[in-house]
């Protein structure tokens, strides 16, 4: 395998469709409804949203596909960058605003850190799976 990401891999999607034909048909019907049947947002804006979402999810295949479609619809690189920076700013803001949960969690555990310089061994079982 020369690379994890290869555009030609997308040509194998029909193999996946054959393995789950009913779920695939439902997905493609949903995608058709979102992009083409609903007309509140122009397709160009939907493609811009898809580009940002692809960056958030980290899917290079989706980035390629949606950038191509966006460009074909007259989209510019400046619009893409502004949308990406908007998403980055929003994500950073969400991290900051979620910081109040750290304050609340810290306040929920009264007392001070152990005065001893001997490190306590943390419980090895995970309590958070994120």
From TrEMBL:
Pfam families assigned: CMD (PF02627)
SUPFAM superfamilies in alphabetical order: AhpD-like
Entry-linked InterPro entries: AhpD-like, AhpD_core, CMD-like
Annotated Carboxymuconolactone decarboxylase-like domain residues: 21-104
Name the UniProt record assigns to this protein: Carboxymuconolactone decarboxylase family protein
């Amino acid at each position: 395998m020369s690379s994890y990401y290869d555009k030609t891999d997308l040509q194998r999607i029909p193999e996946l469709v054959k393995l789950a034909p009913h779920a695939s048909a439902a997905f493609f019907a949903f995608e058709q409804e979102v992009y083409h049947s609903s007309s509140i947002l122009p397709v160009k804006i939907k493609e811009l949203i898809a580009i940002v979402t692809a960056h958030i999810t980290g899917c290079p295949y989706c980035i390629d596909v949606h950038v191509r479609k966006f460009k074909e619809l007259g989209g510019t690189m400046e619009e893409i960058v502004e949308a990406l920076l908007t998403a980055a700013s929003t994500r950073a803001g969400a991290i900051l605003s979620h910081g109040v949960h750290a304050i609340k969690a810290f306040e929920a555990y009264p007392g001070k850190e152990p005065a001893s310089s001997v490190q306590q061994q943390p419980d090895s079982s995970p309590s958070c799976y994120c």
